[in-house]
């Protein structure tokens, strides 16, 4: 064990393989290294994130949105630390990666969790998932502003379609007597915007460690942000009853730790466009799970919003210049 450049694990030496190149496949992927196995892993990832929305709805009702997010990331941190240690990748992050941990942990994890959790105390999870997954719509203008990426006509068209879908979903809330619903819609759009900020930053970051090695530090930082905020706003943690325990047992290990590992694994075999396209299924599947589990009504407004936002995201994804984005951009938790 060595210590060099902030690492408490194996340090990079001159001429060694860069840490952000593809290491050996994890055992589950290596065991199913054919295309069907990789496709199954992608399907499981989509299902895990889709099912997490009704689960989160139940969880935040049991322990509150901030404590739910805190405990979820605490559980995920323990599991991700274990996975990183088992793969020999557990190391104190290098200085170059620490800014990524701070930005991603604060925006993509803590901020997204706090805003989406608060919104789920008001809105049904299917509608919430659709608005939260509008993230790619905000990536295009952010990248054009921050990275000077060209904003093509196709990207502008996609943004217009997505905004039309958002307007369709938000329109029923635009009444004075539905102010809490307006705020919930804005919180979800804010969550999507925070995720977009993280994605744009990841595009410019030069990784020293692998994304999987950085994941536990990101979730730990998110936990460190959420716990004090939860205590200040909601007091001591509430008792964890059976319902809360079951939702946390899904949200932490499955929807966060497994999902992050799976995203890293499939990112080595599928293009960013393929992954982004597959993840378009998540909000509609989340609405379906919500209808089955929580009996959420799926009306014409929700269907229309899903179709318009989905079409807008697909148009943005297929716009010139977008396909070059790294699959790391989608890594995270939902």
Report on this structure:
The protein has 334 residues and is mainly α. It has one domain. Helices cover 70% and strands 0% of the residues. It has 14 helices and no strands. Helix 5 runs parallel beside helix 8. The chain is globular, with a radius of gyration of 19 Å.
Per-chain topology:
Layout: H1 27-31, H2 35-63, H3 65-86, H4 95-120, H5 125-132, H6 135-146, H7 153-170, H8 179-204, H9 211-234, H10 242-251, H11 253-266, H12 272-279, H13 281-294, H14 300-317
Helix pairs in contact: 2-3, 2-5, 2-10, 2-11, 2-13, 3-4, 3-9, 3-10, 3-11, 4-8, 4-9, 5-8, 5-13, 6-8, 7-14, 10-11
Radius of gyration: 19 Å
Q: How many strands, which pairing sense, and closed or not: the largest β-sheet?
A: none
Low confidence ranges: 1-33, 323-330
> Helix content range of the residues, please?
over 70%
Number of helices: 14
Order of helices and strands: HHHHHHHHHHHHHH
Number of strands: 0
The rounded distance between the terminal residues' Cα atoms is 35 Å
Number of domains: 1
Question: In summary, what is this structure?
Answer:
The protein has helices at 27-31, 35-63, 65-86, 95-120, 125-132, 135-146, 153-170, 179-204, 211-234, 242-251, 253-266, 272-279, 281-294, 300-317.
Give structural attributes.
mainly alpha, 70% helix, 334 residues, 14 helices
């Amino acid at each position: 064990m060595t210590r060099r450049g902030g690492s408490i694990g194996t340090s990079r030496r001159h001429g060694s393989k860069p840490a952000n190149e593809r290491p050996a496949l994890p055992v589950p992927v290596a065991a199913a290294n054919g295309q069907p196995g990789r496709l199954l892993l992608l399907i499981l990832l989509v299902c895990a994130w889709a099912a997490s929305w009704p689960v989160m709805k139940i969880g935040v009702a049991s322990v509150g949105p901030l404590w739910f997010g805190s405990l979820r990331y605490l559980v995920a941190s323990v599991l991700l630390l274990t996975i990183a240690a088992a793969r020999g990748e557990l190391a104190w992050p290098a200085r170059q990666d620490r800014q990524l941990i701070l930005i991603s942990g604060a925006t993509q994890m803590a901020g997204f969790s706090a805003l989406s959790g608060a919104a789920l105390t008001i809105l049904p999870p299917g509608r919430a998932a659709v608005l939260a997954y509008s993230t790619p719509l905000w990536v295009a203008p952010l990248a054009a502003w921050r990275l000077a990426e060209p904003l093509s006509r196709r990207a502008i068209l996609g943004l217009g379609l997505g905004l039309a879908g958002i307007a369709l979903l938000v329109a029923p809330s635009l009444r004075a007597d539905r102010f809490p619903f307006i705020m919930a819609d804005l919180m979800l759009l804010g969550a999507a915007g925070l995720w977009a900020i993280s994605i744009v930053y990841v595009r410019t970051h030069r990784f020293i460690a692998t994304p999987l090695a950085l994941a536990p530090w990101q979730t730990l930082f998110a936990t460190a942000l959420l716990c004090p905020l939860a205590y200040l706003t909601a007091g001591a943690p509430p008792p964890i009853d059976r319902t809360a325990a079951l939702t946390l047992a899904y949200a932490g290990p499955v929807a966060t730790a497994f999902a992050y590992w799976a995203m890293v694994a499939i990112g080595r075999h599928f293009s960013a466009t393929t992954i982004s396209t597959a993840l378009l299924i998540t909000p509609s599947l989340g609405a379906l799970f919500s209808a089955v589990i929580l009996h959420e009504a799926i009306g014409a407004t929700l269907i229309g919003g899903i179709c318009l936002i989905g079409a807008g995201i697909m148009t943005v994804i297929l716009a010139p210049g977008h396909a070059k984005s790294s699959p790391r951009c989608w890594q995270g938790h939902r």
